[in-house]
């Protein structure tokens, strides 16, 4: 049991603080003989990188990842893969004023109460900076998930949702918000500029989708695929809610509207009439796309002064200067994709261990 | 790694199928010298029991629990506690017609694709019957959580939400729905009778609350309290969404509205202005009430015929007779409470292992 | 992490005390569609059973095992297998005199210091009775290990070792000691009668051998096959030493004498000149027989009075009446076999998860 | 489950190959507010360091450790501690001739069969170089084990054992073998020079002792302290046997000779007449010194040519040049100490989680 590891068979352990010398992770359990170099990982880090657009923190971090172990001549060897990124642009002096003060909505108070000590610089271990290593590890997981496509999109900013009829995956690469609805992206740009100007911040909802997932991933009771996805996404900084498929809206449907009917495709494949289930039934993947959503609260680091307390039990006012994301949900998109990749890679190995002969497609009759 | 175990230090392993000889669980890691007899567990089972009201399955199960190990002269000994309930009212013949057919919205297909075999009687391992053992184990967890009160309520049935202003915990014991709003309970009774009459079913949203939780439970990154709660609740049968505190609604708030301000109480306690966070910041408990909600889809076992497929790859029509809950969310209330208790008991032990001197209340300055 | 579970993917959790209502275990992770009934398990329990010969405890336990879950129509389903044995012949009054006294060489004192409570009747949880469930679970593991033969033999009783040149596996079934050397068996019978008559007891060394194990089981660093075998065997009651292959004698060999030379067999198989390694190199199986030995201390429950202390801090004399094994090593033979089976089944699944294409035989060139 | 992690609550994950860019580890679960800098770790690494004496490999590695995370202003913060050592003196060309050949007694063949790929340079992941990180992590564990002293000694080289009557801990610092018997050390120097001259190598037996360990560490069945020590020591490179206390010699004792009698000391402490048990009864520490021994086989890397096979299935002759330890057991002493420290730190936290009120000394009556 480790508080800083994720996964069981495909297992990632991250380490590092926002303003330490470096951040890194160890990926253990990766199968051998998979082609892997830094070039497989770097593009995903570049997408998450701070300083990359007007709408994210202006901290400048090149986030160049190095593979320190676990590969040989460009192939994985089955031994642990150590990844490392050096921290470069730590402006720790920005944080002097929160040394003894607890920012509302942050982990400052809870770290103090739990550990009696904290590296307050940039949030230390609780900083979203740690998610860079999730993205890096997620890139390795994608290599394990041959044939699986994992994508994410921002589907709500503040209270403004996209029009799902306008969904175009191509649009997500055209704007700075991973927004699949071009009209919504234009509205959001305006909103975000206003929020930043007023020293405020906005929340968001992200949807992540995995296509090409074989059936059978997951397990009946406490190794459920959806339960592990829920933990993975809820564990991202600032996330307060997670849904699979129809999610909370399922509560308002009738049983006959919600249960996805099945029929047979021409090639023996099971075809579902709809995907209210989000690709998971009884905790096990159906072969349909896995669909999950998560809600990210508005950044708590804002320029508006807030009432709070300090280490000595005094009431104080806190205002967070630093360089922050006005909508931290934006950079959570690649992180959500990465967490989904980590869950799926882990479950692929778990499934294979117990069921080596299980089919990779939802065909009937099963062999 | 076990697919049928929950928790790390306070660890529960359940076993059993809906129509097998018995169901049971092993609770490992319980501290010694805690008073524990069957009488501590049975009341919680009685609340979840099938056949107890008009609105739940009419299967008759006394659900009498036996403690087979781990206690001596009425006290826990620190060794594994084995709990067992014999199955009594298995009408397996009800299930002959789903032997080869996959019910929409059920785990029938995914079990077949994963394992190539399934105990189809009553859903086998995927039956909600397994949750009886979670409730039993949860009762043990409550004994470990001295000073903590865990309660649950149904806050939405179908698309009908309660009026939060009318919330009265006492009301939850007065109706058959754990509904804290008496007016809503009256409406729901009507709706549920109609749904059952028409061979349909309804979804629900449940809220669970833990009061008296010490600060410091949880851990920064992958041992987050909220992530573990999310997995625990999403792992309950038929659940499709989980929220902590403000949940999805947080996405629509501004940073200044969402971040809970703090001030000092007269006795050195930290007081929060609100509890948008749901008692968790940075994955660690704040000392405020833990508040979580989860959405349960409408029962997929309905009397309305549905299109589906069978084991041989033929298209068929399925209609689920059996004895089912028209709103399975009702019986999920004690299960949600139990899962929250299990997460908290586990985290209490985990916290204590690393931080034996941490304070049990949110007071400042910390010692 | 559970203190009462063994294995990771093929995972066994045992429960129960010597004089409780029953003992049992849950086997989780067993692959589906393996033929399994009580008849596959019972023969191994019969070999370990108390009361079966003059030289073991005279407690009469039929040890009839029941499968309560995890199989359907004679096949495993991939869900947890619950096994249960009822205790029958508990003569708890035998133990009244050790209620407050700590028997030398037993866990009485350490349980008291750790837990502050103990079920003293028959040793409670620390009784060798628990090993019945290891044997039962081991029988399930053997079913997973298709093509692997696991056998054990007593190779030393007291200071009397067998003549390895006289080794005949068939002999182990002919005497009451699992002794592969008929001449030694005759001597041991005499010694054991004398030991019992004088109220004393004898230690033993057991060798367990697994043939047909595929290469590749184990992992480089902390998932080493030999390390897990060491833990499995050292974890058997009363064991004080474990060896793999040449074991402690390897320390006295030169490098050239100890390192097993290799050559090619006619069919592309690697043939080893010798098996000093005991079938494991670098923590990974070579495809040769796995050979391990473990030393069992003489039974501490003896009729000779010994100096000790009691719960109140008083010095006392202790003499253990009860019904005990004069050489507990004898009944440890089937337990050692079972533990080896559990380790191998677990590692087979672990290996398969990461290396699904690895060959099942040591042939070169590897595909 | 990770193949490269050790421990549960005090958990170490190592990574790195002999000739990669660096080696490192992550220590997770360390309690907060413990003073820790590189200066606490470096001395232990210096003792294990290659090139430090005539009798170990002449590879020159300064082994300067860096702490990259998990501390703040000289104190641990409760977050993961990342340790890193850069590799400097990799003479990889030495290994060209074993690129395709399998050295007898090494992991070369088993890696090939398991993974189908290996970093052959210097043994890659299976090199003893990895043990530097165990020593580093062990130094952190020692800081957690306040009041516990852990020491090791070489008690046998080849077939030459020390005279236990001559044991003097001070002597271990005076010779290059950690030999507590000065006369034996003189003999061993001669033997080792001869072994090296003849291109041969010698095995060894190491004893590690922990004093000041509180009672209660460990757990009844599969979380036994001695089982975990056995796994920890057997998992060190080249180890073939492990003993606790009397070890294999216990098999030849009678029950009355082996079971350690107890009496009361003047201050309420339990005093044992002897320590045949090696400080562990029923898998739980007694409060006496923990005593364990392990046998290290003679280095398999020798200058004497040996018959073997290559990747292509051809028979070849292998002779290992490189720079090797003529008796790899020597450098295993600090590694054995470190592994014992890791086991004890982990069990201390595990014990505390379940039994926060357990006494730290073996006094009766227990509170």
UniProtKB/TrEMBL annotation, chains A, B, C, D:
SUPFAM superfamilies tied to this protein: Chorismate synthase, AroC
Swiss-Prot/TrEMBL cofactor(s): FMNH2
Pfam family, one: Chorismate_synt
Binding site for NADP(+): 48, 54
Cofactor comment text: Reduced FMN (FMNH(2)).
CDD domains per the UniProt record, alphabetical: Chorismate_synthase (cd07304)
Molecular functions per Gene Ontology: chorismate synthase activity
Self-association and partners: Homotetramer.
Protein name stated in the entry: Chorismate synthase
The organism of origin for this protein: Belnapia mucosa
């Amino acid at each position: 049991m480790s508080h800083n590891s994720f996964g069981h068979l495909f297992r990632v352990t991250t380490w590092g603080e926002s303003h330490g010398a470096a951040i890194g992770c160890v990926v253990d359990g990766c199968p051998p003989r998979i082609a892997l170099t830094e070039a497989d990982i770097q593009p995903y880090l570049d997408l998450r990188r701070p300083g990359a657009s007007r709408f994210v923190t202006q901290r400048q971090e090149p986030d160049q990842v190095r593979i320190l172990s676990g590969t040989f001549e460009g192939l994985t060897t089955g031994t642990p893969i150590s990844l490392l990124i050096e921290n470069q642009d730590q402006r720790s002096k920005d944080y002097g004023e929160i040394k003894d003060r607890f920012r509302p909505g942050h982990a400052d108070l809870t770290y103090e109460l739990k550990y009696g000590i904290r590296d307050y610089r940039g949030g230390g271990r609780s900083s979203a900076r740690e998610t860079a290593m999730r993205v890096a590890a997620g890139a390795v997981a994608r290599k394990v998930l041959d044939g699986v496509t994992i994508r994410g999109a921002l589907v709500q900013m503040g209270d403004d949702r996209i029009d799902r009829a306008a969904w175009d995956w191509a649009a997500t690469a055209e704007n700075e918000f991973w927004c699949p609805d071009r009209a919504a992206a234009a509205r959001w740009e305006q909103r975000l500029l206003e929020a930043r100007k007023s020293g405020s911040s906005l929340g968001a909802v992200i949807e992540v989708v995995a296509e090409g997932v074989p059936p059978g991933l997951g397990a009946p009771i406490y190794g459920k695929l959806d339960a592990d996805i829920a933990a993975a996404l809820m564990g991202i900084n600032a996330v307060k809610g997670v849904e699979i498929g129809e999610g909370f809206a399922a509560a308002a449907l009738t049983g006959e509207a919600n249960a996805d009917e099945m029929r047979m495709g021409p090639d023996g494949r099971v075809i579902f009439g709809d995907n209210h289930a989000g690709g998971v039934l009884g905790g096990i993947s159906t072969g349909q796309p896995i669909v999950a959503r998560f809600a990210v609260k508005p950044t708590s680091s804002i320029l508006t002064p807030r009432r709070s307390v300090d280490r000595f039990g005094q009431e104080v006012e806190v205002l967070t200067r630093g360089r922050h994301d006005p909508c931290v949900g934006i950079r959570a998109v690649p992180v959500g994709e990465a967490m989904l990749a980590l869950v799926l890679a882990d479950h692929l190995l778990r499934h294979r261990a117990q069921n080596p002969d299980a089919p990779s497609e939802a065909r009937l009759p099963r062999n």
